[in-house]
Design a protein that fits this description.
This protein is α/β, with parallel strands linked by helices and 298 residues long. The protein contains eleven helices and twelve strands.
Length: 298
Amino acid sequence: MTIAITGATGNTGGRIAQQLVEAGVNVTVLVRNPEKLHPVIRQKAIVRQGSLEDTQFVTDATQGADALYWVVPYNFGAANFRAYQQHVGNVAAAAIAANQIPYVVNLSSNGAHLPQGMGPISGLYEVEQRLNVVAQNIIHLRPGFFMENYLMQLEPIRTANSVFLPIAGDRRLAMIATQDIATVAAELLLQHNWSGQSVLGLHGPTDLSFDEAAAILSQELGQSIVHVPITSEQFRDSLLQMGASESVAADYVEMWQGLSNPAYTPAEPRTSQTATPTTLDQFVRKQLLPQLNQLTPA
């Protein structure tokens, strides 16, 4: 069995690739920067270097694959982010069709049932639709809010005891650790005990409000952490300062506005199948705290 993995230098693809090579599977990773790969992946996987925007590269690199894990990578510099998402989706569709890849696991998102109003998440709706045209067996994973988003808040946690996000503190969302997404995806890629076209919500162990999340951060870090809602304008400006294009900034502002809307709820109900085990307090202890300690002067 050969499994092709995109995003192998990222949160989900990297963990999936590691799990699969350790399981003894033939793994091909498609990456732009091989030097960023985990050493285990670099040593045991077939590494194909290129861009997921290049149809010929992706088609060649996935030839002979029995399964494919697909993720649309971030591109903060895209002049038109939705057009970029559409193009990358078309690249995946071309490779799946050309190589008749039997099984595809696509990383999508909660909210991807909405074709408009959710920024980049609505862009993933379009990717799902495009892949459904060509993939005989495909599962679109629709996870909730990544706990890893809190890693982007390390500096304000350290310097201001605060988390700054454009959402009210009492807004509740499903929060999930990306390691749990990877575990589910790896199992689907290995087992092939499923067929057809479907979606699978992934919701973490429980929904949390952002104030509740701040309380968990406070408890685990031993300091008082406050969730501070910021305006859409403040969030947009922060993205632009980080190097995002105007298009990317506008799309992510729209996403947060959509998530903030009280009428928004994931299309997939929370069930025992959609729940994943890692709690936020476990995530803070194992991942956030070590990285925070690296920033803190001794």
